[in-house]
């Protein structure tokens, strides 16, 4: 759409950042549940389903226990979402010719480029977040569910410091390959699908779709892409979990992880947390598209003394 192509890079970064913060704040408890369900092994299940996990988390760790790892996400989701959305727009503009629409293949290429760019932030963010989110499950596994008590908090700063000290920068980027396997296909599905769904809501070729249509398109495209790549997300979560519970095996890379999960837990294990992930991603990207539609970034820049940046 012409309107979107005229949005400046600083405005895109602001829109993506604000959308990320608002979205994460709303759906983080479900993301925590997703991580814990994905890390459960057969025969050692603490949680039966999403609701059971939420109830037990609140009971044992308090309300704020549902937000373990949220500080990491809130800190890094701004650059992550900003890079993802801005990179996709950048590649779309450079792949288009004379203002003509993109083919589906070129839309997928643009999404692929966005997915590759974002993992610079996504991998360490997910690495730290998963350790914090899964700490409660590991503590609960060591005692009877009915006797769960508040668990000792762990610090993302301490985890990062220990990883850097023992493994160097590559410690923060453990699971990079699996993250690429998840985020590149996700972007290749999400961005073209959103563009086509959103186009269906345009009253005419020169008019934008209404904001509610942009929100619904973002939600539908996001949830579809999230479920499609959920097997890769399960593999990534398992690889990035440093602490293991009783009888939980370690993995030596993506291939080893996939083969062990398939052999010991079956193919349905790759769908663990798929519903939670859809519930997390749908509003996250729906909100992002609404931020673009409303133009929060442009408004902030217009009120700023540095609004020349948007020129």
UniProtKB/TrEMBL annotation:
Q: Where are the transmembrane segments?
A: 13-33, 278-301
From the UniProt record, list the reaction(s) this protein catalyses: L-glutamate(in) + H(+)(in) = L-glutamate(out) + H(+)(out)
Q: Which GO terms describe its biological process?
A: malate-aspartate shuttle
Localization per Swiss-Prot or TrEMBL:
Mitochondrion inner membrane
Pull one GO CC term from this UniProt entry: mitochondrial inner membrane
Keyword Membrane in annotation: yes
Per its record, what are the GO molecular function terms? L-aspartate transmembrane transporter activity; L-glutamate transmembrane transporter activity
Give the chief site where it resides.
Answer: mitochondrion
Keyword annotations from UniProtKB, A to Z: Membrane, Mitochondrion, Mitochondrion inner membrane, Repeat, Transmembrane, Transmembrane helix, Transport
The UniProt entry lists membrane topology as: Multi-pass membrane protein
Solcar repeat start-end pairs: 7-94, 102-200, 209-298
Superkingdom of origin: Eukaryota
The family classification in the record reads: Belongs to the mitochondrial carrier (TC 2.A.29) family.
Give the protein's biological function.
Answer: Mitochondrial glutamate/H(+) symporter. Responsible for the transport of glutamate from the cytosol into the mitochondrial matrix with the concomitant import of a proton. Plays a role in the control of glucose-stimulated insulin secretion.
State what protein this is by name. Answer: Mitochondrial glutamate carrier 1
Q: Which organism is it from?
A: Oncorhynchus mykiss (Rainbow trout)
Species lineage: Eukaryota, Metazoa, Chordata, Craniata, Vertebrata
